[in-house]
Design brief:
The protein has 177 residues and is α/β, with parallel strands linked by helices. Helix content is 53%, strand content 14%. Strands 3-4-2-1-5-6 form a 6-stranded mixed β-sheet. α1 (5-12) crosses α2 (22-40) and α2 crosses α5. The longest helix is centred in the C-terminal third of the chain and has 21 residues, at 122-142. It starts with a strand and ends in a 6-residue tail after the last helix.
Length: 177
């Protein structure tokens, strides 16, 4: 999953993220994507562009299954994402890899479709993240308590009886078969 970070943050701005500074919104998105990657067992590349910043080189940070990329000055996230999809196109074409891109930018969606990736809007990603988080929490809550001896329950009565006889014989120091 490749995520256009500011695109997702801007899609959230109309909602609960309105009160967060940009840095807080970035940190929160990183944290949520780390959880999402854990629940979904996906590798996630989160891209923030530095189009107007003074960042002279592209940097990467690794947070578990999430790689956060900050592009260099003059490089927009869309171009980085397109190049990454180009680099992965061979594996996508051979069905060795599925690549999804989360961006609400219509032009970006069209371009990445041409490179073999699938698209999802920022809103679709937010909904999927929430559904997966809720399902994951529900699974943990509803997880059955493991029993003391589940292997013994899978044995036939004859095998259990024979093992019980062996155990009793061992305890009496006289094994008889």
């Amino acid at each position: 999953l490749i995520v256009d970070g500011y695109n997702v943050i801007n899609a959230r701005r109309s909602g609960s993220m309105d009160s967060y500074s940009l840095a807080e919104a970035r940190d929160r998105l990183v944290s949520e994507l780390v959880d999402y990657a854990g629940y979904s067992a996906q590798q996630v590349v989160l891209v923030f562009d530095a189009w107007m910043s003074d960042r002279t080189a592209r940097t990467e940070e690794h947070h578990g299954a999430v790689t956060v990329v900050y592009t260099q000055k003059g490089e927009i996230a869309d171009r980085y994402i397109e190049r990454l999809c180009d680099d992965l196109a061979g594996d996508i074409e051979l069905h060795r890899l599925e690549v999804r891109v989360a961006s609400s930018d219509a032009l970006e969606q069209t371009i990445i479709l041409g490179r073999g990736a699938t698209r999802m809007s920022a809103r679709e990603l937010m909904i999927e993240m929430e559904q997966l988080r809720t399902a994951g929490i529900r699974q943990v809550i509803e997880k059955p308590v493991s029993r003391r001896n589940p292997i013994g329950e899978r044995l036939s009565p004859e095998v259990r009886e024979r093992l019980e006889q062996m155990r009793k014989g061992y305890n009496n120091n006289s094994l008889s078969f």
